Amino acid sequence: MTTQPRRRPRVLIVGAGFAGYQTARELSRTLRGRAEIVLLNPTDYFLYLPLLPQVAAGVLEPRRVTVSLPGTLRHVRLVLGEAGRVDLEARKVHFTDPEGTEGELGYDRLVLAVGSVSKLLPIPGVAENATGFRGLPEALYLRDHVTRQVELAASAADPAECTSRCTFVVVGAGYTGTEVAAHGKMFTDALVRKHPAWPKDVRPRWMLLDVADRVLPGLDRRLSDTADQVLRSRGVDVRMGTSVKESTSRGVLLDSGEFVETRSLIWCVGVRPDPLVSQLGLPVERGRLVVTPQLEVPGRPGVFACGDAAAVPDLHRPGEFTPMTAQHASRQGKVAARNVAASLGVGDPAPYRHSDLGFAVDLGGVKAAANPLGVPLSGIVAGAVTRGYHLAAMPGNRVRVAADWLLDAALPRQAVQLGLVRSWQVPLDTASPELAKTGPGPREE
Ligand SMILES: Cc1cc2nc3c(=O)[nH]c(=O)nc-3n(C[C@H](O)[C@H](O)[C@H](O)COP(=O)(O)OP(=O)(O)OC[C@H]3O[C@@H](n4cnc5c(N)ncnc54)[C@H](O)[C@@H]3O)c2cc1C
């Protein structure tokens, strides 16, 4: 009589961002081959999102902020694909691979870590005219677009066209919008300084708008004050308590009634959970999947969620949920791994608890606003702490990132457009990227 070898249980992790990457890494350490760990993600890399503004501003080359999944996650099987449907009864995830082939993966434990997408507000013209800032394609597109506007402005015969082309409007003064505006202003100033035909009386104008009363509204007020001061001293037009009423191909109408002529509306108003979450038919809180403090979906044993996609109870602030940040996502990934392992008989489960480690906002050059462990820092010290923090937090590429920073400090930035990403490939509504799949319309650049 032959006995069938016992199949190892399979843990399927969907999404390899901050949460999914940490889950996979911790599980491969703790389970040591006792389960098959499968990671389903559309790309073969982990994207370090906090350094994306530096890619858009030409400080870092795009590959620096990507960390190879197969190269850094030993004992984890990577499946390239995007989950389209989760069958919770049959315990299967249906996906489409990058070449359009459909497949399915069964699981014994499921970790949903699909993150978030850009949040689109119902403002006329925004979906058609704004650029989002959520991934590598957007950063590459923005770098080219900004370079192109400066070059076209330099050769424009009409002064009004020149002004419009070198006006850049960023909406949303959270950490993303603040960093994009801070780095963007430095980038365009550097571009025009080098340009032989640049009109002397014109300076690139960057505006940062938000309905909130201060920049970085969700963070410690001292960080807001530092960021505000750096932005204004650099010449960024900071307009708080202001929003966009309408956007056209020629400019934006502010709610104050002012019309700003621009070809560049950069939309950083925040994010909402990945649309896969709403398709599950499970309880959500502001679009995020409701989970227990152990990160398990109530009533669905073996199904876990973490990161931006999950509404994780904040045990330090009863009744509230942890914010969508990389710090929370990474640490939740570790807790999800621990609890998945416990459900397979390895170790004990634990709830997600956190202590505030502070926040770091890179403002370009040597400037930053940071409050590590609650200690407010500004200027060059904050700059050094922020860069050190990013190097420590990145799971790879540290030497390459540091080398790019050194080169950027020593050499002029390279200003060329590669044209690899076109506007139709970065639709603002990333929840429905049909346009990106079908190609450009008649007037798309
Ligand atoms: C420009 C920018 C700057 C930021 N800066 C900071 C910062 O300085 N500090 C900070 O704390 N936070 C920052 N954040 C927020 C932080 O990056 C997010 O909170 C964090 O990435 C959330 O991690 P996550 O793992 O939940 O999602 P993500 O990191 O977004 O990862 C989700 C993963 O799931 C994959 N995925 C999505 N849908 C599917 C699907 N259907 N099937 C398979 N895979 C899928 C995605 O491709 C991705 O790899 C920033 C965000 C942005 C956009």
TrEMBL record:
Any one Gene Ontology molecular-function term assigned to this protein's record: NADH dehydrogenase activity
Matches recorded under InterPro entries: FAD/NAD-bd_sf (IPR036188), FAD/NAD-binding_dom (IPR023753), NDH-2 (IPR045024)
Key words of the record: FAD, Flavoprotein, NAD, Oxidoreductase
Highest rank taxon of the organism: Bacteria
Claim: NAD is one of the keywords in the record: yes
Domain FAD/NAD(P)-binding, chain residue ranges per copy: 10-333
SUPFAM superfamilies: FAD/NAD(P)-binding domain (SSF51905)
PANTHER family attached to this UniProt entry: NADH DEHYDROGENASE (PTHR43706), NADH DEHYDROGENASE-LIKE PROTEIN RV1812C (PTHR43706:SF45)
Family: Belongs to the NADH dehydrogenase family.
This protein's name: FAD/NAD(P)-binding domain-containing protein
Species this protein is from: Streptomyces roseolilacinus
